[in-house]
Structures are given as C-alpha cells and as structure tokens.
Amino acid sequence: MIREKVGFIGCGYMGFGMAKNLLKNFDVYVIAHKNRDPIDKLVNLGAKEILNYNDLLNKDLDCLMLCVTNTPIATSIAEIISPLIKKDLLIIDLTTHDKSGTAKMNNILHSKKIKYTVNPVMGGPVQSEEGILGGIWGGNHLHFEESKKYLSSFCKNIFNFGTVEKAAKAKLLS
Length: 174
Description:
Oligomer: single chain
Strand content: 15-25%
C-alpha cells in the first residue's frame, strides 16, 4: 500500500507532537532546522529529514503543513516555497498568525492554485503529542474533508469556521 506524503515545516514546540502523530498514517518529510532534538527523534520514529525547501517540494507531497512561530516567519517561507510548488497542493497552516497574517499568506499562495487552509489549534505540546488538540479550520469548504484526513491525526475535534480569515480571528479571540 502506498502511503500519502506529508511535508512538515516547524517540528518544534507544538509541531513535534503533530508530526509524530502523522507518522502513524502517512510518510512524513520534515525540514531540518537549528533545533536538532525533535528532528532526530522524528527521524528515529520513521520521518525522513529533508535539508531544503526545493528538495521537500520535489517529493510529490499530498499535503504540506506549516507550524512556525509567527506571521513574519510563515510569510517568508511562503514567499520562498510558492514558486517551487508544482501541483495543486493542500497546505495546512497551523501557525497562530497576527490579525492580518492569514490574508498575507492567502495572497502569496493564492496565485498558484494552492489549496491554502488554516487550522490554528487549541491546546499545548502535551495535547499535541497525545493527539487531542482542538482545531479551528478555515479555507475553501471544498478542502475541509481532505484537510480533516490529515488533521485527525492530532486533533480530537476540528471546527469549520469558514474562511481562513474567520478561523484566524476565532483563534485570536479564544
């Protein structure tokens, strides 16, 4: 059986548990970063480490998840990866953005038939590793079921808030 491929950028404080849970059902490709500990643990559990964005996006991914610290980091990554994406890719952005962050991300990624969705989470690193986070999903409703297939690996509940902007606002209000 061929397993679907998930790329994961941001395997730190929150992302480690998410990526660890994804490994149960998917081939997971993690991007290297300065904190080696979570990357080494994930590789020991079966993840494949990738050294740069170009190599990551050449893996014919089914889904790419982004779980980084803030909007400036996320938009910087989006600007780098958007020209490298070669197919209609589902991106699930798990970053908690500032009030205009998801709109910025959507503008960067919308130009390339990228299925950009957001899913800021409720919970912390313990819930992430236990796979019981709450998800505040937003995006085009046509991509909700596809997103849930991946998100259910680490989210006990996923709530559809409509657009990416509405989901981001709901997270900031919570």
